Amino acid sequence: MSSATYPVNGAGLGLRRTLMGPLADHPPEQVHFMEVAPENWIGVGGRFGRRLREFTERYPFVTHGLSLSLGGPAPLDEALVHKVRRFLDEHGIRFCTEHLSYCSDDGHLYDLMPIPFTESAVRHVAQRIRRTQDILERRIAVENVSYYAAPQQEMSEIEFINAVLEEADCDLLLDVNNIYVNSVNHGYDPEAFLDRVDPRRIAYLHVAGHYNEAEDLIVDTHGADVIDPVWDLLDRTYARFGVIPTLLERDFNIPPLPQLLEELDHILALQHRHGGTRVPVTEAGAEHG
C-alpha cells in the first residue's frame, strides 16, 4: 500500500471503555484513528452503544478481531462473520483485521494459538481468509502474532506469512512489537524479517509493550510501555517502508490518558522524522492523491 491507499493515517489508539470518558472530555490532537475488537461491541446498546457511536462518528475506525480463529480446525464461524459485516457497515469502519492464529476448536480456548508453519496450513488458513473476505465483501489484513512454540515447522515465520498473504490475496497488519518479541524468543534477526515483508500488503502497524519473563523469553501482554528496542525497530520500519499509520495497543494496566499520549507523541515524532506531516483529526482517514 501507499499513503494514497492506507485506510487511515497518522497515529491511532485502541479504544477501551475506561478511556471513553477522558477521550470524550478532552479529545486529543494526537489521536487520528481508533481501533476496536468488534466482538466486544456487537449487540451493545444503551449508554455504551451510544458512546461508541459518538466516537465512530468523530474518528476513522478500524477493527481488530479476536474470535474468527482463522487457523482453527473447527468450521469457520460464518454467523460471526456476518455479524462483523453488519457492525462494519453500521459504523462505517474503514478496515477490518484479524490475528493469523486460532483460538477455538469445539469451544473457545481464550488464547491465541500458533498455526503450524506448513504448506497444508497455508492452504487451510488461506481458504478461510478468502471465505471471510467473500462474506464481508471487503479485503482484510491478518496480523503477525507472537508465538511461543512452532509445532511441525516446515518453513520460517515470514515464509509462512508471505505464503498465506499470497494464497489468500489479503493484506498484513504488521505488529512491530511481535517481530521484536519473536526475534528474542526464537533467535532471529528482526531486520532480516523486515527485509522479507512485502510493503504493498501492509495496511497499518501496531506497537505495544510486553513483559520480560526471562532473558530469552518475552510475553506479549500489551500491559506496559513500549520499550526502546521496539521504538528503534519502528524507526527502522519507517526508514525501510516510509511512514505507515501506526496504532498503540494497551489492553490492561492502562495508565492515565496523558501517559498514553506521550507514546503517541513518540510515534508522531518518528513519523515526522521520516517525512510524515501532521494529520488533523478531521482529515486523518482521508485518502491522499
Would you kindly provide a written description of the structure presented here, covering whatever features stand out?
- The chain has about 290 residues and is α/β, with parallel strands linked by helices.
- The chain has a single domain, classed as Alpha-Beta Barrel (TIM Barrel).
- Helix content is about 40%, strand content about 20%.
- The protein contains nine helices and twelve strands.
- The chain has helices at about 15-25, 45-60, 80-90, 120-135, 155-170, 175-185, 190-195, 230-240, 255-275, and strands spanning about 10-15, 35, 60-65, 95-100, 100-105, 110-115, 140-145, 170-175, 200-205, 210-215, 215-220, 245-250.
- Helix 4 packs across helix 5 (about 155-170).
- The model is unreliable at about 105-110 and about 280-289 (pLDDT under 50).
Short description:
The chain is α/β, with parallel strands linked by helices. It has helices spanning 17-25, 46-58, 78-91, 119-136, 157-168, 176-186, 190-195, 228-241, 257-273, and strands at residues 11-14, 33-36, 61-64, 95-99, 102-104, 108-113, 140-143, 171-175, 202-207, 211-214, 217-219, 246-248. It has one domain (11-283): Divalent-metal-dependent TIM barrel enzymes (TIM Barrel, Alpha-Beta Barrel), CATH 3.20.20.150.
The name of the CATH superfamily reads Divalent-metal-dependent TIM barrel enzymes
> Strand pairing plus helix content: what structural class?
alpha/beta
Mean pLDDT: 88
Say how many strands there are.
12
The arrangement of helices and strands along the chain is EHEHEHEEEHEHEHHEEEHEH
Estimate what percentage of residues fall within beta strands.
Answer: 15-25%
Largest sheet: 8 strands, parallel, barrel
Helix percent reads 25-40%
Alpha carbon gap, first and last residue: 13 Å
Protein name: UPF0276 protein D6C00_04500
Family: Belongs to the UPF0276 family.
InterPro entries: MbnB/TglH/ChrH, Xyl_isomerase-like_sf
